[in-house]
Amino acid sequence: MIARQSSTIFFVALTIVSGCVQDGDSNPQPHPGILWVRTAAEFEALSLQAYRAAGDFLPGAIADPNWSALPQQTGAASLPTAIIFDVDETLVSNVEFQVTLEAPFRNSKLDNWNANNKSKPMPGAVEFTQLARAAGVELFFVTNRPCERRRGLDGPCPQEAVTIQDLVEAGIPTDAEHLMLANERPEWDREKSIRRNLVAATNRVIMLVGDDLGDFIPCTRRKPLAPCTEGASIASRQALTHDFKSYWGAGWFVLPNPMHGSWTSVE
Question: Does the structure show a pLDDT above 80 at 201?
Fold first, then answer.
């Protein structure tokens, strides 16, 4: 196994309040999480830090044929290497969509916004993906953007083309073969472990990169989805995070996202 590196990815804990922040009698401002992502230099620093740490970890992960970022993956020494990425708030920033969003959130609102606005990459994402590809690593993109039929659009999954275009615009081109959306197949629900395991059937997965605990660990959502039998809680998520503490910054790299995620649903 490769030596665990000491690089640490720091989480930022922000107090998220409902409604908007008021500045005297001025217009309402976005809630603190959105405002922080949009304006704080610390947000950019954390994203750069995560991708720099991932770049430092990359050569050793490639060189060690016994290393996998999936704890259950074995016998993968002869397989080509791969990294699994989430998309939103991991490679592509949707903070400007969050600023304009009028509740309630609907997938169609994000689809329309992405189709009509040029996407922006997370700081450090383009450079790291280029580094990984130059080293011969195959990149897979596992997102919970869902496949949904839309009136006036052809095919069962118009979101696939939009997501590919978003990644192209962000400077991280890919194709349908390497993109896995929720509900693209009947068994591909919002629990990502099934899709991660599919990648692991053909590749040695050397890294996971995401912004949500579910991008790394199964059974982190309040509503259980197969193979999970119980919903997650604040306590269970913290316990799972600690159980896999040796992977954080050493194969698992997390991006800061105080705006949304599975953490908002648990108690």
Answer: yes
Say if residue 104 is preceded by a cis peptide, omega within 30 of 0. yes
Closest to 192 measured CA to CA, from 90, 93, 114: 90
Spatial CB neighbours of 212, under 8 Å, sequence gap ≥ 6 = 86, 220, 257, 261, 262, 263
Say how far apart CA 55 and CA 41 lie, in whole Å.
Answer: 21
* Amino acid (1-letter code) at residue 200: A
Strand (E) or helix (H) holding 144: strand 138-146
DSSP 219: S
pLDDT of residue 209: 98
Amino acid identity of residue 165, one-letter, is: Q
- Which H or E element spans position 97? helix 95-100
CATH assignment at residue 152: 3.40.50.1000
What pLDDT, on a 0 to 100 scale, did the predictor assign at position 199?
98
Instruction: Give first-to-last CA distance, the chain, whole Å.
Output: 37
User: Domains in the chain: how many in total?
Assistant: 1
Closest CA to 226 of 198, 194, 195: 194
